[in-house]
Amino acid sequence: MHITSLKAIPFELKLKEPFAIANETVDVGLNVFIKIETDEGITGWGCATPDSVTSETNETVMKAFNAVIKELLIGKDPTKIHLLNDLIDQNLKGNSSLKTGINIGLYDILGKKAEMPLYKLLGGYKEKIETSVTIGINPVDIMVEKAKEFVSQGFTCLKVKVGMDPNQDIEAVLAIRDAVGNNIKIRLDANEGYNVEQAINIILTLENLDADIEMLEQPTPAKYLFALKEVTAQCPVPIMADETVLTLRDSLKLVKMEIADMINIKLMKIGGITNAIKANIFAEIAEIPVMIGCMNESMAAMAAGVHFACAFKNVQYADLDSALDFEKDIVKGGATYKDGFVIPSEKPGLGIEVDL
Ligand SMILES: [Mg+2]
After folding, report:
1. pLDDT for 22-32, tens place per residue?
2. CA of 189 relative to ligand 1 center, distance in Å
3. Was domain 119-354 assigned CATH 3.30.420.40?
4. Is 128 a catalytic residue?
5. Residue 18: which pLDDT band, with cuts at 50, 70 and 90?
6. How far, in Å, is the centroid of ligand 1 from the Cα of 107?
7. Which CATH number among 3.30.420.40, 3.30.390.10, 1.25.40.10, 2.60.40.640 corresponds to the domain 3-116?
């Protein structure tokens, strides 16, 4: 099989409502759809979701795609994924979301060629995974309403964004716990918004008031590894690293230095499915459970996260909700939601159709 055509198509997906976290507010999801056509009539779809976290924009993705990727991959066998990863890495530094978009497209082709859904092709550990849905930072009453809305839709796990104002964070989390009862999981994500003392105080306060927090994600600034390690050592709830872990090398460092209890692997940060497989393997050996998270990803990208999460035992947590946030996605299939779980498509590859 050979690649006959490669296209990158930028598309802005409008969010239903602006989304605020500790370090930014956004109202559109920037996605660059990747279409890979082959001489066997199989078309692979991938998607790059550039983000400030990966220091990319739609423009940088398009520029690197046109300058490097296109020429490099035309005529190559798309099923030789490791070889193509190596070729891309030798010719292009950084650009992790672009590399992810390409990598996802190659796995989509592999799945279609094998006539297997991607999660089974990758090893098929489970058929579905519980996912959190995310509540952005807002006035407390709005956050509570959002929480109630998600629970009424059947979701069982809420990820509450915190990290802007410790007092309001405590108030919001307690109000949400009060509103949803004790059977709903609540995890927190501070997106680097606290210092060590604030992070520990907030968790101790919430635990004393029986808020029952499942985990706290990225309490402290990404670059201060020992701050995160300190919070991990002192906090009674598990600490998850997200922004601290961008690359495969970061993941290894986290594992070796025991900086956090858990790790949030996002395909867009780590450069795709192949690298996520490697990071998950050394996390599993170190007995560090993995969460698969997402950026503001269209289903074309998020479906890859769902398939990945269901393929591996050590992926014990999922935060795969971005495709729910758009007014209208241009992708059909990929994954469905039921009773708090996200379920990968049984169709070959990602199982998506893209209306482009
Ligand atoms: Mg996070």
Report:
1. 777 889 999 99
2. 6
3. no
4. no
5. confident
6. 25
7. 3.30.390.10
